[in-house]
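This is your field. Have a critical look at the following sequence-structure pair:

***
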Amino acid sequence: MDQGVFYFYIFLGCSVLTYVLTRSIVVFSKRWKIMSLQDFRRRKQVQVPQMGGLAIVSTIGIASLFLENSFLMNLLIVASPIVVIGIVDDIYEISARTKMVGQLCSGMIFYHLCTSEAGFLYRLMPNQLMILMGTVFTVLLIVNAFNFIDGVDGLAISYSILSIIGLTFVGQFSLESTIPILGAFVAFGS
């Protein structure tokens, strides 16, 4: 099979799976009254169902197993503390401090799984502690930037799509890793 056709099917499959999962999670969230709170950060003052990100994570997990893609699997491992805390937060509304603990855990997991001696940080920073602190700070910065964007205008998925495409063009992500993520993001945003 032609590689372009294969990527198209992966994109389409991930889009359909995310769409179906998102709609199922919306029904589940409405039935169990897992809805967002109305607050000053939201442009629209209506309650929306929570836990939609679970559809994206589930789709990427299934794609990583189907494609046997270690990058996607590592991405899920890194994101797992944030995902778990996000689900708990959607249901029970937990403190910012607890959320930050999850983000710190994700940053440390990212450091252990994804930094290498050939990487950019090893050339930039002189020792392991500085690399760890830089990695964790970067994860905290990115996660909170997207949370802020999402809370203000709900457009985080658009910025996520642009970020993934940009990282693919500069060579940080392979096309095989990008296609399932884009498929999930596009369906979630629709």
